[in-house]
């Protein structure tokens, strides 16, 4: 079992602690939190060992799970990697692109592995259709959330939209060549509502909307590709797959047939992929353990986390510029 320690015992940090403690792939050694009062409270309430010195914890483990505020991701990861420790870093990977690129160098220099916590990659609805998403040419995403003061210290793009940015980049094998975006601040100092249009070199276009002041929660993505439409509901963990194929010469009574202006007939049919229940956070943490133990590529690499951050920061820049070429 890999010895693991958690940095940060906030809302998400406590979830990580609970899951790592029950995982059969990790041995939880304890956690560090800069807030001593919070650290001792969590230790008393849950029984996890509290380290009041970050270096002591790092020295005691093989893997460092970083669930601190984004501003401290870089320094925490740097400390761990320089000591030869593998790092799991919650999204976004770092606060700046320069910090993320430095971590890529450190990863190679010290021969460690890193993974970024883009948890939607492990959402069972997304994994059920991931292999069916093939060269999408139009993508539309909506990620809407009710207001929660936690996380409003960063723009909604880094808080919410970055989940969809990463998912889109993972299925569109092409370079982003154009970004147009707008953002509006309503309750926070940074934008609470954002819309972005990404244009890819292969012609694909993605339209992303994110809001953290909505009246209801929604996390949906729609992928349009040749002869197929795929809808993913990340919140309800449901999918809809509609495909087309050449119509049979003699259609059945219940076959759905469409005919275009040129007379070409297509049959519409539906697929219902199996969706298996899971805990996506536990799955992402245990997949990282597998990557370390088997010396394989992590599911969400530091490079991919860096690419998602790069696009997110370009979107934020485009709020003012209105148009930006990548």
Automatic annotation (TrEMBL):
Pfam families: GFO_IDH_MocA, GFO_IDH_MocA_C3. Gene3D superfamilies: Dihydrodipicolinate Reductase, domain 2, NAD(P)-binding Rossmann-like Domain. Residues 155-216 form the GFO/IDH/MocA-like oxidoreductase domain. GO terms for molecular function: nucleotide binding. It comes from the Bacteria. Residues 2-118 form the Gfo/Idh/MocA-like oxidoreductase N-terminal domain. InterPro entries: Gfo/Idh/MocA-like_OxRdtase_N, Gfo/Idh/MocA_Oxidoreductases, GFO_IDH_MocA-like_dom, NAD(P)-bd_dom_sf. This is Gfo/Idh/MocA family oxidoreductase.
